[in-house]
Specification:
Elements lengths: L1 H27 L2 E4 L2 E6 L5 E3 L5 E5 L7 H17 L1 H14 L4 H23 L5 H14 L14 H11 L7 H21 L5 H5 L3 H10 L8 E4 L2 E3 L1 H5 L6 E7 L8 E6 L10 E5 L5 H12 L1 H7 L3 E4 L2 E3 L12 E7 L1 H7 L9 E6 H6 L1
Parallel strand pairs: 2-4, 5-8, 7-9, 10-13
Antiparallel strand pairs: 1-2, 3-4, 5-6, 7-8, 9-12, 10-11, 12-13
Amino acid sequence: ASLWLVASALALLVMALVHLRIARLRRAWPRAELFGHAVRVAPSVGPAVLGVVQPFIVVPRWLLARSDAEQRLVLAHEREHLAARDHLLLAAASIAAALVPWHPAAWWMLSRLRLALELDCDARVLRRGVAPRVYGSLLIDLAGQCRSFTAGATALADESSHLRRRLLAMTPRTSRFTHLRAGSLCAIAGVAILAACEAKIPTSAEVQSMDVAGAERAMKNVSIAIDTAVFVVDGKPASAAEAHAIPASRVASISVDAATAQVPAKISITTGAGSPKGTDLTIHARHLATTADSATMRGMHSQHASEMQHAFTGVLLVDGVKVANGDMSHLDPNDIASVEVLKGGSATSASSDPAAVNGVIRVTTKAAAARK
């Protein structure tokens, strides 16, 4: 801590001494008027904006021997710095770097800030109609003649690499095969959109009339592989024919577990046998995080969240908390563990909200599933 304080104090002291030196030299530098703007003429310092409380433009004496057009460009550049108050930003950044003098990132960021200010200033000058070639040639010429003290004077501490970056920024560049790459990206985006449109979430009408065949179609629409699925009816193994023979009116719930590398997909059907007449339909789509197919389904769910907003007027619960339908678009598909759709009595039992009569969609995230 002591070394830190000493280093910071030394850095601030150097900056203060340079500021005092500039203030003393300012009184010795004669005033001049350059195209209607007051400047100070130094033997060799500048061109730059110096000072913090009372900033001023200083130009080297040799600049007065250059052409009027070049003098106007130099003055325009420095006046842009004054108008943007870049001297205040540089002063604040210099003090911040001095407070952590041991951290190289602070000084690197100060250097990058100087470059950013120069790039921004160059862009504003060029927007006035100045030819980039003329402006760039002047910068190169001036860089070869500028000689000044730089320690502690951030406005003067430019780097040769900065000049190169500034010149590159003025040069229009056209990448090879730009149109080809843009066309390829558009084609890929179009294919992705078409693929997304093909994966449809079951509508409310499809949910109402859902049977085993309907559940299979819904799972195929979201790329869940069920071609080799096994069937379980009321907890007992059943054949595909027996499962498909169950009418929709007798189905109380359907659960679809996606297949893994070792286990085939499983479709579990619970009928209304032994339950009150008119048992409400519940459709569960449990996603297995270890399968690529379930990841595809989660992606589909996010892509069609906006479509579901228009069709669904019930209650949306995420980990048991009611959220707005629009919030589904902000949910990361990779975080979803399961989606559950309820209607009728099952919906009103799941939520006391009056809108539950229109149905309830329950989304469970992986984090909540892990806690359970």
